[in-house]
Amino acid sequence: MKFAYIRVSSKDQNEARQVDTMVAQGVPEANVYIDKASGKDTDRAQYQALKGKLRAGDIVVFDSISRMSRSMDDTKREYEWYITKGIALEFVKEPMLNTTGTAQDDVLQRAIGDIILTILSAFAEKERDDIRVRQAEGIAAAKSRGQRLGRPAITWQTLDTDTRRLFIAQYSRWKAGEQTAVETFKNVGMTKSTFYKIAKEYEAVAH
C-alpha cells in the first residue's frame, strides 16, 4: 500500500498544498497522516501511528526529508528503520533519496544515498538551529527596546464596556456574600490573581 506523511510546524500553517501533492503522487487521501508539530524529534502522534500501520512492501511518500525530522541523528535512524523493515521511501523534493525502483542490496546506491542523506539532514538541523538563534536574537532586541513580550497586561483601563459591566455585577454579588470568590473568578473569566488585581483597580476608581 502507498502512504504519505505530512508535517507542518504550527497550527497556523495549512497542510492543503502537501495533501494535494500526495494525492498527485498516487496516495489515497485516507492514507495521508498529518502532524502539526515541530520536527525537533520523531515523537509525534500521527507519525508513530503511521509507522505502526506499515508492513514490508509498503511505500511512504514525504514532501521532503525535513518532514521526517530536522535532527540529523533522528533522520538517519528513521531512514535506516524503513530500509530494515523493507518499506520503500519516496521524497518529492529529493528523489535521489528514493528507495523505490532500486535494489535494496545495491551497495553503491546505498552509499550514495547515505552521503546525500547526511548532507541534507545536516542542513535541515542547521536551519532549525538558525531559527532558534533568530528567535532568541529577536526577543533580546525587543527587550532592549523596552518592548513587552507575550500577552498584553489586563487592567481595569483595558477592559471593554461589556466586560466592565459584567465585572461590576459579579464583584457586587461577591462583596454581598451571594457567591464565592471562585464562582466569581469563573463568571468573569479571569484567573484569581487577575481578578484581585482588577478588583483593587476598580475600588480605587469607584471610591
From TrEMBL:
InterPro entries, alphabetized: Recombinase_CS (IPR006118), Resolv_N (IPR006119), Resolvase-like_N_sf (IPR036162), SSR_resolvase (IPR050639)
Protein's UniProt name: DNA invertase Pin-like site-specific DNA recombinase
Family listed: Belongs to the site-specific recombinase resolvase family.
Lineage of source species: Bacteria, Bacillati, Bacillota, Bacilli, Bacillales
SUPFAM superfamilies: Resolvase-like (SSF53041)
Keywords: DNA integration, DNA recombination, DNA-binding
Annotated ranges, domain Resolvase/invertase-type recombinase catalytic: 1-146
Domain of life the protein comes from: Bacteria
Catalytic residue list: 9
Classification via Gene3D superfamilies: Resolvase, N-terminal catalytic domain (3.40.50.1390)
